[in-house]
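Let us begin with a simple case.
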Amino acid sequence: MKERLSKAEKNLLDRLDKVLAGQNSGEPATFLEEKLWQTLKKFEYSEEKRAKEQESIHRLMSDISHQIKTPLSALLLHLELASDNSLNSQEQAAALRECKEQADKISFLSETIFKVVKLENGLISVKRLETDIVKTVEDTFAVIKPAADLKKLTVSTDLPENLTVLHDPLWTKEALINILDNAVKYTASGNINIKIEQGAIYTRIDIEDTGIGIANEDYTKIFSRFYRVRTAGTERIEGTGLGLFIAREILRQQDGNITVSSIVGKGSVFSVFLQNR
């Protein structure tokens, strides 16, 4: 067949072969070469995207396995203890209570991970409405106050009477609860303050605490999946390491943002930004 091809056709085929091999012919690209080059780039991008997605799934599965392993091991251990006939009824009851606690942890972790997967894959519909952000913050405050009261923390607010911004009340409330929950967990004593300030384009919600603070090198890490802030001594603070990750994803889907500033040993300020009307 090649013998019957004209010189121009052979030249074009040679140049196309070079494009397929990723080489530059050194001559101005023809329309056909350009289209072929664009198609190849699309295939490369698709392959690269698929590889990244597979890596992300593998990393997530590894994280899930690691997170569930501890409560699952504890659950199996206490189930064995609860069935030990050599223990008295009080000891068996204590083992069963521990079983329920560990089962609740696994259930909560599973639900949270499912929420993360849905957020990352756009399966959750976050709808921005022109509605009062003050009410959303007050509803959040009501949810978190009992936990703060148990630790004898003072929770104060500096809020306007009403302020309309673009946000999804339900999901924004969940994002704020996750931030406030962290503030309560990592604050041993002192106070937590919630403040709203309206700017020209964005409205800012500051959540300030007098907790243990966050080191500069951890500022970006704390919004990663399963990342836990290092605490001094042997104290272990319960949590999934997913709260701030979920908060950031919720805010991003509303064209919002979240930032943090902190001083170790003195406290942190998480700032949430939402678009005005």
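The second case is a distinct protein. As before, the sequence precedes its structure tokens.
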Amino acid sequence: MKVNLKHFDNTQVTTQESLSTEMKTYYSKYLITLAEPELVHDQWGQKHPIPANGGKTIEFRKYESLPKALTPLVEGVTPHGRSLEVTPLTSTVHQYGDYIELSDVLLLTAIDRNLVQSTELLASQAGRTLDTITREVLVGGTNVQYGDGTKLVRSALVGGESSGNDYLTVDAVKRAVRSLKVMNTPRIDGGYVGIIHPSSSYHIMKDPEWQAPHTYVDTENIYADEIGRVAGVRFSETTEAKIFHAKDLTAASRTLTVASWTSGTKTVAVDEAITAAEATALVGRKVIIDGEVSEIASATAGAAGSASFVLKDAPTEAPADNDVVYPGEAAAKGRDVYATLIMGANAYGVTEVTGGGLRHIVKQLGSAGTADPLDQRATVGWKAIKTAERLIEQYMVRVETCSMFVDEEN
């Protein structure tokens, strides 16, 4: 976005103490304008204003469906009618923010490119931060479909194999849509919407049923980052879609190897070395041994062949020598799992970024008083008040699948 300096009468110079009110308003709006496109997970939620002088809670509203009106009307008699049934759901808001410090060498003026560049970087950071806060609430929902619905747990999902992989398919989307339909989930613009990662969309976009946006909607009504539609779901693509990633078990190895198993103490000795710090980090982690997920209760550091860990519960099948121990927080063999959210209207609510939800803050050189006695530091930053809440679990389905790709945890 280009800045037309002719719009501003009071150009700031280094001898002035602060930016003009007009310039502050401009940059505040500029920050929000740049941050909003990053809020992919916010775009279909109920928008609620930040409460003014109302404490740290915000109230969302869950609207109950009305029962069928099957009793015939009596001629000339007004029926009793019904009241709108609204269930209030309160959520606690939290404040987030960050800033960039600019030295006196980088003079802070209205025309200084450093202020513009800092605002752009902070806007991106603010948008991604606030988007992640909403995302983490949404992916915590209880309405989950693993793959095409035939798998029961995340750890059973398969990826990266020659066959039998649980990649996102049109059939998986159709099953999720069916779940929404049977719950009478209200639609958004005549259909449902989805949030998808590029590593998942790569697979489903190959299907002949996939439609490009220009074939079903004009460009004025396209959603942010919309890439296409299938099975009545319009998808927005973002690299911020949730990835369930299992971290390596040690710094030197993603997996471990069973050296021996002691059933009485539920101890697994491993062929690899484990440091004291790694042993501490292993406690409470999930692992997959011979396809079964177990939790590590304790771990003992040691050299290769003498290091070990103890399982919280004995697995159904006793671990055998040379069995591979995979990290267990994601799919089979520790493979990444991608969450695709498919939802209808009123599934969740979020706070607005306008009206005090997101602010741009500039501090001039020397504004820190005695903390900056030589007027050497200025700052530009942002802060926001944010929360999100799932309102109706049945109106949102989280479809978990693998991909041929492996991405970093986000």
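Residues 1-17 have pLDDT under 50 and may be disordered. The helical segments are 21-35, 113-138, 170-182, 198-204, 276-282.
Keep these points in mind for the review questions at the end of the chapter.
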